[in-house]
Amino acid sequence: MAEGAGAGLRLAELLAAGRRLWEEVETGAEPSSGAPAVQDKVRQGLDALQRAAAMVAQLDLFSENEELEEIASADLKYLLLPALLGALTLKQVDLSRRLEHLESARAHFWRFLKLCRSYGLGSFHLPPAAASPPGEEDAGSPSPGGPAAAQPSLVAMASSRQAKIERYKQRKELENRLASMRSFVESGQADEDQIREFYILQIQKWINTSLEEIESIDQEMVILRSRSTGKQSSAPPHATSRQVRAPLKPFILTRDAAQAKVFGAGYPGLPTMTVDDWYEQRRRQGVVSGQGAPQRTPGITDEELQKQQQEKKEEEDDEEALQKARNWDDWKDTHPRGYGNRQNVG
After folding, report:
1. In whole numbers, what is the pLDDT of the chain averaged over residues?
2. When comparing pLDDT for 223 and 189, which is higher?
3. Is residue 195 within 8 Å of 186, Cβ to Cβ?
4. 68: closest CA among 2, 128, 118?
5. CA atoms within 13 Å, Cβ hemisphere of 343
6. What phi and psi values does residue 226 have, to the nearest 5 degrees?
7. What is the Cα–Cα distance from 32 to 39, expressed in whole angstroms?
8. Are the beta carbons of 211 and 116 closer than 8 angstroms?
């Protein structure tokens, strides 16, 4: 289907601008794809390609009911629009929207492959329209590890590896042929058949790229979804959050109840608390065990308790002094006076 002159010129400019920006991002000298200048080119390229894709849809350039021969040679290059959109979408670096960008890029690549299949461009297996959620990609297959599952898995791995090798060889061959034809076509010296061959080679190159990108996207999406599931399962429920212990209010710690009355009268703004009361409060809060509080015999006042503790200390001191005296007497019995004095001999 031929395009209008004005629309065709505008459409060609948008495609050329989007493709040029993609090539600058792909082969640029910037050290990081997240650099502001790089991301600005990505946004500009996506805008140009999206506007071009909208014009292609409005002009109804392609239809799944027509044959490849029915497409004008000058229109073949617009088949690349979905693939270029997918490639530039992957260049976005917003990590918070990474999964969204992967899904969008995959949809662009898949539409491109589906369109190529409908025109008979290349022989390849069309991937599913959407990536399978984790756990569903092997639905209906035998249990993993079983003898029936081992052989198909090995066959699939070998087939996938062989397909990658073939795509790599095809891509290198296509790149070499395109490099030799590019200057000839862009200079305007090529005839219609050579232009048509040049664009079909480009389409076949992007078919291999799209298949590889979809495979890579599916792998990354599995990783991102598993991380998201892991974060949700590891997050503790609100009901099991740690119990926050209320902070202690200021108070005056006294030795006994008599001091508590004295200090309480002088400082009405602060409560008073004896050592026993403080231990009991902390024991109820679970901070100290019941063993930490001083033991008190029922019926004994604070003064009597202090007197008992002082007498016990004096008894321990007396026993220590008595033991020292006994040791000194024993030493004198076995060592005569002047023992060890070597200076006053004679």
Report:
1. 78
2. 223
3. no
4. 118
5. 0
6. -65, -35
7. 10
8. no
Q: Hey, what's the torsion of the CAs at 29, 32, 37, 41, to 10 degrees?
A: 80
Q: Is 63 helix (H, G, I), strand (E, B) or coil?
A: coil
Q: Give the angle 187-60-195 at the CA atoms, nearest 5°.
A: 20
Closest CA to 174 of 157, 199, 153, 194: 199
DSSP code for 238: G
Q: Provide the token pair at 241.
A: 């959050």
Compute the distance between CA of residue 202 and CA of residue 142 in angstroms, rounded to an integer.
Answer: 41
Phi/psi class of residue 340: alpha, beta or left (left: φ > 0; alpha: ψ in -120 to 50)?
left
Helix (H, G, I), strand (E, B), or coil: what is residue 26? helix
What share of the chain has pLDDT > 70, as a percent?
68
Q: Which residues contact 245 (CB under 8 A, 6 or more apart)?
A: 285
Q: Classify 312 as helix, strand or coil.
A: helix
What are the phi and psi torsion angles at 37 (to 5°)? -65, -40
Contact 121, 83 (CB under 8 A): no
At 291, list the tokens.
């063993």
Alpha carbons 201 and 224: distance in angstroms, whole number:
35
Contact of 194 with 182, CB cutoff 8 Å: no
pLDDT band for position 263 (cuts 50, 70, 90): low
